[in-house]
Write a structure and sequence with these properties.
This protein has 671 residues and is an alpha+beta fold. It is built from 17 helices and 31 strands. Helix 4 runs antiparallel to helix 15. It is globular. The N terminus is likely disordered.
Amino acid sequence: MRYPAFARHLSAVVFSVVFAGYVLTPTMSYAIGQSTTAVAPTTLTADTAEVTAAGNAFMAPAGWSLSERGNASILEAPEGKSWIALVDVQAKSAEAAVAEAWTAYHPDAMRTLRSAIANPDKDGWQDQHTYTYQTSPNEQRTVTASAMQHEGRWTVRISDLANAVDGKREAQIALIVDELLPKGYVRESFAGRKAQRLDAKRIAALKDFVVRSQDMLGVPGISVGVVQDGKIILAEGFGVRELGQSTKVDADTLYLIASNTKSLTTLMLGKLVDEHKLDWDTQVTKVLPDFRLGDTDTSSKVQVKHLLCACTGLPRHDLEWILGPRNATPELALAILSRMQPTSKFGEMYQYSNPIAAVAGLVGGHVAYPGLEVGAAYDRAMATRVFGPLGMTRTTFDFARATQGNYARPYGFDLDGKTTAVAMAQNYPIRAVRPAGGAWSSVNDLLKYVRMELAAGVLPDGERYISEAALQARQAPQVKTGKDSWYGMGLETDARTGIRMVFHGGRMRGYRSNMVWLPEYGVGAVILTNADAGDVLMDAFPRKFLEVLFDGSPQADAAVAAAAKAAQERTAASRKALAIPPDSAEIAKLASRYHNDVLGEIRVIKTSNGAMFDFGAWRAPIALRKNPDGTITFVATAPGWSPELTVGTQAGQRTLMIRDAQHEYVFTESG
């Protein structure tokens, strides 16, 4: 539901080409720590500025160990057996550079290449390419190599990470990736620059960018708004609400805004702080006695400000609500939390978690209306403290109300890369955790919110809506997400360009959105899209916004152009790995029902040309993929979300395994 820092992945939205059968050799032994090193590993006690053998700058995260072996700088995560290697080489091509880098990092490491990706130039690097290698689900590992060139010399970043480490240490890994810069290179800074007046010419440049991007990415509908110095200077729609229909989207069109709901939830909490009904430091168990985590010690430490800080050590735990009971109520969020265990120390590092963010809203609702069911109390608190006072008349949590009249239908890609409607049932589960991502809103409504943020809590008529202290507390750093970025309470801040940008992204099935504002410059923007391909615009539009505002170097257009081709090539690569229809012999081995005590039931509906998975609220045909280790994975082929379940056995019973980065759930045959 949430997207990382706005410019973090611009270099990764690229076109991919698959080199079938291109092999590095046998499987890795993972004995890096036993290799001879020129300098003994050093465990870092703080984020530390370092240089590679050729003098390229990078940041080594706290807790990781760093060793130098010839031309390779090798970082190992605290958990062990997860590495990022930075290797400087002289080579004639990216492919040759990667081959040399593997020799320096792990001479015996051999894997089959799955895809090669060409990236746009960025941060002083040219000729960037990313290579992804085949792994099997049961390895729970991701292996990639990225080659980049500067002034004729190559640097290769090899990422060889356990999925659990990758998920847990997202911000630390991003620190390594984002701060790897060529020797002597200084990143573009807008510090001290004057923000330009967004006149008709500059607004036209933004609109042209949106139209070009929409065409390249295949997004049916996009609504965009811009506010500067308290005035709305753009509020417009591009494209249609529904493919095959002529009705246009506009600034009043409703979209599911997903995790952009979080900042609205913390705004409601800020209002309650002003009303002296709670404080940011209030212990949560004192105002919501039913609140508890799987870890008792952490439960007692959690204050209101921690519920939306991504700093409690609780990891992503989304499968338990995504595949939760049909028509689940917000009580589900409390039930999920009672099973959750922290995987990092309290306050130690950034870990994004939706269930605990959802409870933030339930706390506020319960404090405001203790006599109501917690979900209804939250809805009323948002209506009376946020939507009503700000004049956000169309914003709602009611799916039935939202999906009448002027709303944008959701779209994703099918297996062949065609833009296809997403079943709205895939989005229904968000209702149970709606304070974390269940609001529907429009550009016009969200611009009212952004305008209030820029006015430090004062409404257009001059009335103070919220105290500046309560408003700004939400932006204060709670946990670092990068060298010059941090997460507050439902809001992120990025200052890598020399200016402070406050923002948050949102993503649900077929919907992508972003809100961004520059507090010191009185300017902000909103972009809402009705397609998964809007991922690219979540990043690229804020960058384009900065380019137009500060006459910055052009980066956004190249990123979108590369990403458009990427979508086609990546889809083709994924499609080649799937058998459709699946092998009938493998289908015959499936049980008709599988059950998991937490996630519920999956039914297998066998058809004349394959089978379908029925998840209760929605169903999808399945495809088959044979993994390098010989195991079989079945993939539900629904646009919007294609969950993968790997076949196995336990205690003589047939099983299907589904995983996220740090958890696995086993469905066992039943009935």
